Please model this.
Amino acid sequence: MSVTGDPAANKMKMEEPLLLVDNKDGKLQLNPEALKVLRSIEDPMLVVAVVGAARTGKSYLMNCLAGGKNGFSVDSNIQSHTKGIWMLCQFLPERPNEVLLLLDTEGFGDPDKGDKHNDNSIYSLAILLSSILIYNGQRNIDQQSLQDLHFVTELSKRILIKSQPDGCNSWDYVRFFPEFVWVIRDMTLEMNIDGKDMIPNEYLEYNLKLRDREISEQDKKYNELRRCIRNHFPSRCCFAFPIPTHRKKLKHIQELEDKDLDEDFVMERQNLLNYIHTHKKLKRVVGGQLVTGRRFVELAKAYVGMMADGVLPCVESSVAKLVEVENQAAVDEALKFYENEMKRFSESGCLTMSKLRENHNARSTEAFNIFHKKSMNNNSGKYIIQLEEMMNSTYKSLVAKIKEKSEEQCKAHLAKEMSSIKENLASGHYRRPGGFQELKAELDKAIKHYEEKTKNEMEGLAVLTHFLEKEKPRLEQVQKMDSEMTEKYSALEEELSRVKSEMEKMEQERKAAEKHRKEEIVEQIRKKFEEGKECSMEELKEAMEHTRSEIEKYKAEGRMEDAERAQQMYDYLMKKYEVTSKWSFMMFLRESAAEFRLWMEITG
Model:
């Protein structure tokens, strides 16, 4: 395994598979080394998991998808070779900003294990983590091969969508379940029904038709399995592979060249490879948000943790935990960037309040962009406000330190420039006719020298103002002794007024900048809201399209009751779609107390 620094190359390349989920003594555990690799992937992922009976060539199939002869462990003997879930990350040459993650699962029905519950946990996890689920079957589609998919009928008992099910739990499966791909291996039968040749997809749909009547218990089980597959996986397709080569050569199939394999096998393998590599079914969570490697890790930890605790994996609570972890990580990363940049700037010297504020605004905007890229939409508003508050706290602390240092330096400069003036004031040197004129000339000269030395100091004006205010009583005493005191006094007041005016201008700039910052925060919240709304609507629209297709298929089969049930699911999804489409930013703000208070502060 190697890691590259080229963003276009997805930053990493795995040269060999890694164990992702260890299945030891019936207990599932995540491999920290695999999680470390996944955390380095910041691009969205196409996650393909393969499931099927033990010793049916799943690992060889995954190596085909990986585009190489080596990778997942392949053995030709009767023992099951893959244990737990193994992973392999691959580049997608045509899609440089996306990653293909292949998951090879332990085969079910292994007599050495004999644990149906453990099998179901493996496949529940494969469904929860994948965006495309490949079922690796053998020879043809018949009742026995469908029976091998028995775990599908138990999914509603093994996977919760919501922490508090409301009776519509199963209708939400279609929103996040992976696409189902049936791969038929070693098929020898002709795909011909009633004299009509079929393509693999038609063959699959034919075998998923329901029986007209459900009189016997056998009929009910027959239809229940097909309903579950159709309801849970409305998006599905099929690929049919002939026997690749002579039986005696199969044990060396991994080393065989294409010229040594059946021509139709090679062609169908390429069809599957093209399908996977060009497919747009990226892994998303409920709400339509894309899953990166880091997000995948959090989901895997949540699901495996729940299974280890003996509770059903819940999609809603797992996504909520993912959102919390991901958004907090986005805050931390953005804040780290801001703090490093501000520290570097503060150490550069020559700081004025306007320069510091300008840099603060620029670095804050960049930090928000980092957060926006890394964060997830759900409840991100509170994290945006949290980030702003933390940056503002850092900024204020930095300002306080710089002010303290600047004040010391300015006082030292002022003391040096004003030392002779202060001595003359104390001795009464200026309390004579023309004394104020002399004082003004010396004072103007001292102020000019001081301002030249402190022009880049943050506290330059403040220290000067404080000095003039403090010495004002002594200046008034000098005025009483001067015959031109009115004219000269006005000149002094003008100098003091100028300094105060500059300070007031700085305060106005500060207030304007603060208002602009709040407006920017609200805009960040609005962008995340709109992004989340768009993702949710796309997800619901896709689910509705799949469900509508299933309704038409049921009607074509004359299954009106099933069509009606599918229509109820469609209506449920449509209602969610309509509610989401009408959900406005102002409605969101009113639901979010902190964000709404911020909005009211800005708008008045």
